[in-house]
Amino acid sequence: MFHPPNVNLFILIFIISTICSIDGILYNGGDFLTNNLGNNANYDLKNFTIRIPEIIFSNGKIIISKIDVSVGKFEEKKGNLNNNEILGVVPFFGDNQNTNFNRRVKYEDLASSVNRNINPCQNFYDFVCDGWINSHHIPEYDFTYDRLADVQYMIYKQLDSIIKESVSSNNGISQMMSTYYNKCLDKTEKNRYGTSYVIDKLQTLKNKNFKFLTDFMIYINPKSTFFSISVAPDPYDSTINRIYIEPIEPGLHFKYFLDPEYRNTLFEYKVYLTKILELLVEGDRTRSIFKEGPNEINRRVESFIMFQSELAILANRSAKDSHTDDQSKLITNVSLQQLQTILPSVNWEKFFQNTLPQKVLNKINLSNMTIYLVNQESLKAIDILLHKIGKQTMNDLLEWLIILNYYFTLDERFENLDVEFNKIYTGITKKRPKSIECLQATIGIFSDYIDLQYIQKYFNMNKKVEIEKMVKNILLSYGEMLNNSDWMDDETKRNALKKINKMIINVGYSDTIFNTTKLEEDFSTLYFNNKDMLPDIYDKIYKWKSLLGFEKLLEVNNRNSKSLPSFVSNAYYLPYENTIGILAGALQNGFYDQMHSIPLNYGGVGTIIGHEITHAFDDSGSQYDEIGNFKNWWANTTKEKFMKKKDCFVKMYNDVYVTEVDEYLDGYTTQGENIADDGGIRVAFKAMKKALEAEDYQNRQRVEGLEEFNDDQLFFMNYGFNWCGKDTDESMKYQIREEEHTIPKYRVNVLLSNNEDFRKAFNCHKPDHMVSDEVCRIF
Q1: CB atoms within 10 A of CB 192
Q2: Among positive and negative, which fits the CA dihedral 89, 92, 93, 95?
Q3: In this structure, what are the phi and psi dihedrals at residue 292, rounded to the nearest 5 degrees?
Q4: Of 326, 322, 321, 331, nearest to 372 (Cα)?
């Protein structure tokens, strides 16, 4: 139930009539304003309660800073009004409110979304999101849609404008960007070469007749093979970059290969692969690659499924290890000689000699190079498997690597096959519009170039200043939360405070986007024009990006890398730098608005900032120190207490049953994000209270259409509104199975049911659904 508050009874109606109006009182879910009262009417007020905690006399004026009012029944003697009980409290006159508001702000999106017929103590997500959900639809080419996606599609229009304006530019990067975008849109060219590009690649593979896996890996580089190779900071010295080798993932989530529940989907996956090969057989008119008959196709499909099933077993094992309390166990640093002993299927010295940029080879000694293996046991298992499989199976797998790595070059018939399979796999019934697909591909390739243009054209720099103030306030509040924690020893507490004090926050963008010299230097090694075929352009781009990645081996990290471009509606935390990015794309459409009140902005972007800060102390981030190095900075007894608190979140979410799809949430996979959500909303609420205390009462704002809600309630309402979205059943199953974030509805409701400030704000008590039996919290 939504319970009325406990208030003291004061018979002070004469004071109200003397010093202020009672505008803004909510009666039965609507505004009841004094100017709507009849001039000569008589009214009965029953169960009328008023509380005035403070009266100030100043300059001959009487100022009431706070008034709490509730009315059980309000009747005109000539005719009765609705006799229903008022909605719990008259929140506008609740804590941290006053009667003198200089202006109203508009927030129609939230105001039109709130459904007052839904009890917020029973289902807060529906209470806040009902209007938004009913006014939005999931595109046919997707299986989910939320407010962040809403923002992102608005940003896509802005990016599309930037790309199209580049047509008339003489800048070489702009011209390549325009060429790529237009070639991607050109269905005619893609359909004209059909399967010929892939068939030619398969023919080259056959002609070369590679006897050693190393030679094939060099040939197909930088496309992926049986091992994923990348460059990232050294976990023990984040100023240095190292090469990492890790297992590749199966094409579908490992459960599809291992869990009988997904047997039908796995069967359809085989059908999908079979149809791909059948179309390729049609394109191989000379039958130089594919022979006649279904047996050969079946063999190729079974070879692929066999290998994918083995990868699934390894992926399942890795998933169980991924949230270990000691991630250093997942990586092993080895020399080139040790690597050769551990993974002997590849001649690693030959591979690196032929794939690393020459400038890197000129400056490093391969024999002295440190390499990190991720999940070494899984890598060894893949290597052993490669030795065990027969020559025919190996040839089949190499062909599949060619097909899948160049699948994007195939014509529309293959896109139609994708749609067929996606209907079963995700429930998506239409292919993504070419305009969106090509826009996403273009901004992915040219993100560094577009980044600066986007900020210059669309980002309001005043936002950056205001949000940096918010960040300082939230960091200060986080420090207080850490200091006040009664379960941490003093030394661990000091180390935690170091992380807060040393944390770098990039608001809107990373300053690296202004380094145009570096930008031009990077793009100087990429060149293509309108005469190139799109597949050849892809190849050039892949190799260019790979070489830039390996050149990082010569760079020194200064904790200023950019995880995502500014135009993404998202935020991030980099544990190996102890750096946070609150991107320009996430600072709009209600997440942050300079015209909004403090509660709205802290409930919007403030909780996102707090979320990212908390990642520094989640199951993963807690294993890095203040400058981003792997280090155990916890006392043993405090670490044990932390693990118990962490396990509380795992159990709480594991116990949640998702009725829509008849499955339970996965509290283990989502634990890091759930901990970040909890810490984020707690610190943002605390910081909001500080900001309100510092604000002049004369600057307080009312929100049109939401006048009855107080500051605390508006904070939680905008937090919930952050995550409004729509999902198909297939989407919810997919998110439970594969995502590290909890499904939006449960992300909001489970989190807030665990929050004491929320309960107090909306007066919720057991046995309300929004009140959990046990409270889990880290800080």
Answers
A1: 11
A2: positive
A3: -70, 155
A4: 331
Q: What is the spatial distance between Cα 211 and Cα 222, in angstroms, rounded to a whole number?
A: 20
List of residues 6+ apart from 461 with CB closer than 8 A: 508
Residue count of the chain = 779
For 328-367, where are the E strands, in sequence order? 331-334
Going from the C-alpha of 322 to that of each of 328, 330, 404, the distances in angstroms are 11, 8, 27
Question: What does DSSP say about strands 73-76 and 68-70: parallel, antiparallel, or unpaired?
Answer: unpaired
Q: How far is CA 203 from CA 194, 199, 223, 277, 463, in A?
A: 16, 6, 18, 15, 56
Task: Calculate the dihedral angle through the C-alpha atoms of 708, 713, 718, 724, rounding to the nearest 10 degrees.
Answer: -90
Spell 116-131 as b/e; 16+ CB within 10 A means b: eebbbbebbbbbbbbb
Q: Both tokens of residue 387?
A: 């030795």
For 413-436, the pLDDT digits (tens) are 999 999 999 999 988 999 999 999
In this prediction, residue 97 carries a pLDDT of: 41
The pLDDT confidence band at residue 66, using thresholds 50, 70 and 90, is: very low
Q: Which class in CATH covers the domain with range 215-410?
A: mainly alpha
Q: DSSP of 416-441, one letter per residue?
A: HHHHHHHHHHT---SPPPHHHHHHHH
How far is the C-alpha of 494 from the C-alpha of 635, rounded, in Å? 11
Amino acid at 241: N
Q: Helices H, strands E: what count in the chain?
A: 31, 21
Supply 110's token pair. 């939230």
What confidence score (pLDDT) does residue 52 get? 56
Under 8 Å between Cβ of 749 and 770: yes
Name the β-bridge partners of 582. Answer: 507, 571
Inform me whether the pLDDT recorded for 77 exceeds 90: no
Contact 124, 744 (CB under 8 A): no
In whole angstroms, what is the distance from residue 100 CA to residue 107 CA?
20
Q: Any idea what the Cα angle at residue 431 is, between residues 429 and 436, rounded to 5°? A: 135
The residue written with tokens 């709009």 in the block is 588
Max Cα-Cα span within the chain: 101
- Cis peptide bond upstream of 599, omega within 30: no
Give the 3-state secondary structure percentages of the chain, helix then strand then coil, rounded to 5.
Answer: 55, 10, 35
Cβ atoms of 245 and 340 within 8 Å: the answer is: no
Tens of pLDDT, residues 717-762 = 999 999 999 999 999 999 999 899 999 999 999 999 999 999 999 9
**Could you give the CA distance from residue 514 to residue 448 in angstroms, rounded to a whole number?**
10
pLDDT digits (tens, 9 = 90+) for 560-619: 887 899 999 999 999 999 999 999 999 988 899 988 999 999 999 999 999 999 999 998
To the nearest whole number, what is the mean pLDDT of the chain? 87
Amino acid in position 681? I
pLDDT tier at 292, thresholds 50, 70, 90: low
* pLDDT value for 586: 93
| pLDDT tops 70 at residue 622 | yes
Instruction: Judge contact between 93 and 102, C-beta under 8 A.
Output: no
Closest listed residue to residue 148, CA positions, set 688, 679, 583: 583
Measured between alpha carbons, how far is 613 from 676 in angstroms, rounded to an integer? 8
pTM: 0.85
Kindly tell me if the per-residue pLDDT of 6 is higher than 60.
Answer: no
Task: With residue 326 as reference, give the H or E element that holds it.
Answer: none
Q: Give me the residue spans of the domains in the chain.
A: 13-100, 215-410
